[in-house]
Amino acid sequence: YQVPNWSGGWFRVSDKGQMEVTPTPGLHAPLRSIIDDILERGESLPVILRFPQVVAGRVKQLNEAFGKAITEYGYTGHYQGVFPIKVNQRRMVVESVAAAGYEYAHGLEAGSKAELALCLAQRMHPDALLCCNGFKDDGFIKLALWGRSLGKNVVITLEKYGELDRVLKQARALGVKPALGVRFKLHARGSGQWEESGGDQAKFGLNAYEMLRVVERLKEEDMLDSLVMLHTHIGSQITDIRRVKVAVREATQTYAGLIAAGAQLKYLNVGGGLGVDYDGSKTTFYASMNYTLGEYAADVVYTVQETCKARGVPEPTIISESGRALTAHHAVLVMPVVDVTGPTRNLDTLAAPSEDSHQIVKDLADILGNLSARNYREMYNDAVGDKQTLHNLFDLGYVTLDDRARGEALFNAILRKIAKLIQGEKYVPDELEDLQKVLADQYICNFSLFQSLPDNWAIQALFPIVPLDRLNERPTRQGTLVDITCDSDGKIEKFIDLRDVKATLPLHEPGTKPYYLGIFLMGAYQDVLGSAHNLFGKVNEAHVTIRPGGRYHVDLFVRGQKARRMIESMGYEEPMLRDSIEDQADAALEAGTLTPEQETELLEDYGEELLGYTYLEYEEG
Ligand code: PLP
């Protein structure tokens, strides 16, 4: 499962074969124990385990990495981070970032009015920035300006030239001096899936001509000192460090150009993009990155300094809006496997064809009996042909359902035997390359992909998935994962691998004890983008801190959305639902299809489900 490669030291496998969270050296706790505890309290799975110490640890790592680079290069400016809350607006996350970031004056970024309202209420260091990005109306601008009156270091980023007039008008009306940033459309591009965020066709930002017009306009207004920040962003999850360097160089040249035009910028904002190594391969593959946090900080600081020196301009305070890198590691979705299906399961009871079986079934049985390492390729082709014939004959009514069942089972047994024969072979014929996927089990997991892992569905994002225990036991099955939505897209068929993407995940045969899988590194973007497909709602959450001696404490348990909430979000009202069921039950009582006791029980059950968790609730164990 490559745990040391992707975990960044926040998780490890214990000697007992269990996944443990390790928020600081010396502190560790097995996830399985936390889950058992939660179940003992009568709560249900799936659950997201959130570790505030991991968020705090990431904030510290980021700030210290920049601090180290600044000291090493003798950089004369500072570094200040800004957390874009769109990455995860959960209270625990925002408050953890704000608290851990206080000593570093780590700020927040809001991209909408609602996000700004949330950010303004946070306790922040007086120097910490509150960046307002995104398109803005008068209400957004006014709220941002009020933020300055509250003593917060609010900077309004101009995303379009037209926003300048709007801001100046509101600032005049309120009598508040604005602090402005300007987002520049770099021609440099990111790498990976968010490459389109930069470049001329980017959705946000001003071009060079527009930016210089902003400077001229502010000069005319005698407000040039209001322009404090140059903002850039070339996309999230930049996989290649060279792209970062190229973009930072262009951004710094632009900064120097603005200084030459008379601006007195204080901040150079290099945006987000700091990656997360989801697959641990340390490559430029979209789920990875070919650099470390330390290298990122060093390269940004060095490139800014080098360019500033060459242009003879002051070294600015460097801002990064790292979001993914701060929050991805802190959350793990834990889901129980509720069932396993698959083409090779239950084949051990496969009986030999009888006298009456159709000849095609007997042929398949012969292939199975004669299969060897010498002839498997030929036999495979014969078997595929026979299966096709079996289906054609069934469609025409010449093969019974019983023969079809037996024939299909024999075909699957043939594939299973071939898979064993070619296991470990260097050369695998083209037609057999997908065999493992075809034969894979489907592990049915109690979760909704659309609610909990939307990026896997939408953009094939990869996340490490690992059983919570039995990790000292070699897995004997290969599986794909399916969720409990009634949507055939609700499945995971791509898994991390150091060299490629794997089509199946090695898994254990679930035994008598419940088998739990953890989806790791899912703390960035997933919570926010999730949707209510099939009315599966937000999942339960446990906020857990780890204490010395392998102990831990569940600080807060937040129950997921109840069925009633999900139904109401679609415009229905609970009393209306209850009335309708009551009327129908009364009618059934009159018609004699329900007894009075049954009616009472039915209404109780209905009410209980309305108040219940939207996920499957089996007795665990
Ligand atoms: N800043 C801006 C303007 C963004 O659009 C984004 C997200 O794409 C971020 C910061 C956060 O980026 P990341 O999560 O890659 O750090």
From TrEMBL:
Keyword list, A-Z: Decarboxylase, Lyase, Magnesium, Metal-binding, Polyamine biosynthesis, Pyridoxal phosphate, Spermidine biosynthesis
One function term, GO molecular function aspect: arginine decarboxylase activity
Binding site for substrate: 268-278
Active site: 486 (proton donor)
Enzyme Commission number, as recorded: 4.1.1.19
N6-(pyridoxal phosphate)lysine: residues carrying this PTM: 86
GO BP terms in the entry: L-arginine catabolic process; putrescine biosynthetic process from arginine; spermidine biosynthetic process
Domain Arginine decarboxylase C-terminal helical, first and last residues per copy: 565-616
Keyword NADP carried by entry: no
Catalytic reaction annotation: L-arginine + H(+) = agmatine + CO2
Domain Arginine decarboxylase helical bundle: 354-436
Cited function: Catalyzes the biosynthesis of agmatine from arginine.
Family under the similarity heading: Belongs to the Orn/Lys/Arg decarboxylase class-II family. SpeA subfamily.
Name recorded for this polypeptide: Biosynthetic arginine decarboxylase
The species this protein was found in: Deinococcus hopiensis KR-140
